[in-house]
Amino acid sequence: MSDDLLEVRGLRVTMRGAAGGRAPVVHDLSLRLAAGEALGLVGESGSGKTTTLRAILRLLPAAGRIAAGQVLFAGQDLARVRERDLRAVRGGRIGVVWQDPLAALDPLMRVGEQIAEVIRAHGRGASRREAHQRALGLMRQVELPGAEAMFRRYPHELSGGQRQRIVIASAIAAGPRLLLADEPTTALDVTIQDQILTLLARLRAELGLALLLVTHDLAVVWQTCDRVAVMYAGRIVEEGPVASVFAAPRHHYTRGLLGAAPSLEMPGVLPRGIPGTQPGPTGAPGCAFAPRCPASDHKCRTVTPVLAAPSGDGHPAACHHPLPTGLGAGRA
Fold first, then answer.
1. Cα 172 from chain centre
2. Strands (E), the chain
3. Which residues of 271-294 are buried (b: 16+ CB within 10 A; e: fewer)?
4. Residue 249 has what DSSP assignment?
5. Beta-carbon neighbour count of residue 166 at 10 Å?
6. Helix, strand or coil for residue 196?
7. Is the domain defined by 6-225 classed in CATH 3.40.50.300?
8. What single-letter DSSP state applies at residue 203?
9. How many CA atoms lie within 13 A of 193 on its CB side?
10. What whole-number distance in Å separates Cα of residue 221 and Cα of residue 42?
11. What span, in angstroms and rounded, lies between the C-alpha atoms of 128 and 140?
12. What is the DSSP string of 56-98?
């Protein structure tokens, strides 16, 4: 039996198109996450990151469907359990922090009551008074000032950073083992982003949480995560320890992402974009990155590469012509 808290095996997600057919948007995706570990899932918009996160919880839109694969959480396959049993997992053993805190909160309900509601739903008979007191404690734990007064406010009365702290407090209210975070800092200014990331890191350490972080921001991954998985066109194309992948990327797409990120070491140097655009959903063979890749050839356009580690040291990449594993490839 696997020691991983979360293990996704061969996940395939399809979406119904306007013409009625189904298009694959996540292809044969596998990932693992140990207890207490943080994994960053990165890639351009449209790469399938959020769809993967939603598939883990079976919260896909009506047009979406898990066509194949397993989502093993603590040994239980969430892709197969009954909806009734899944409700105990969502918001209970797995907490979620969504990208837009204003959309995640009920605009007609006081924020403190929203935290207390999660406690009552998953708290094994907690009274209203107990839930109220525990909600106040959680608000203090996520560093919200004046918890008593803030408890009675509505979402529109709070700043973006305060709303995100309320969402985080709700996500940890039932004592989860795993936290899923979908672009949790995108809508915030830089100063507040850093505060939220520092808060997530502290809560991870204090509560022993595992974290699956969806983001397009490589700096966020560097600050927050132990490992990173890079997605492109619905597939993971590279995976490994953050330091290893960032210092010596093996996939040409990962190298392009790193080159497109601003560098603190060279503030006067403009980042390089990746030529071309990401393709739409397709089940065609070949590497989806081939049209944008400087190293592509006939094999890349006709044979789908598999995620594999090199024969010596190094982390896995799905590339027919991977970059060398020596240091220094990240910013070249």
1. 17
2. 6-16, 22-33, 38-42, 64-73, 76-77, 94-97, 178-182, 210-215, 227-232, 235-241
3. eeebeeebbebeeeebbbbbebbe
4. -
5. 27
6. helix
7. yes
8. H
9. 15
10. 8
11. 19
12. HHT---TTEEEEEEEEEETTEETTTS-HHHHHHHBTTTEEEE-
DSSP single-letter state for residue 323? P
Q: How many angstroms separate the CA atoms of 3 and 73, rounded? A: 11
The Cα–Cα gap between 275 and 184 comes to: 28
271: amino acid identity, one letter: P
Percentages helix, strand, coil for the chain (3-state, rounded to 5) are 35, 20, 45
For residue 117, what is the enclosing H or E element? Answer: helix 111-122
Angle at 197 between CA 136 and CA 145, to 5 degrees: 30
pLDDT in tens, 32-91: 999 999 999 999 999 999 999 999 999 999 999 999 999 999 989 999 999 988 988 998
Residues with Cβ within 8 Å of 29's Cβ and at least 6 positions away in sequence, in order, are 8, 10, 11, 12, 48, 52, 69, 234, 235, 236
Assigned token pair, 310? 């090199």
Other C-beta atoms lying within 10 Å of the C-beta of residue 324: 11
**Domain boundaries defined on the chain:** 6-225
Phi, psi of 270 (to 5 degrees): -70, 140
The pLDDT value recorded for residue 1 is 42
pTM of the model: 0.92
Closest alpha carbon to 229 in 97, 39, 73: 39
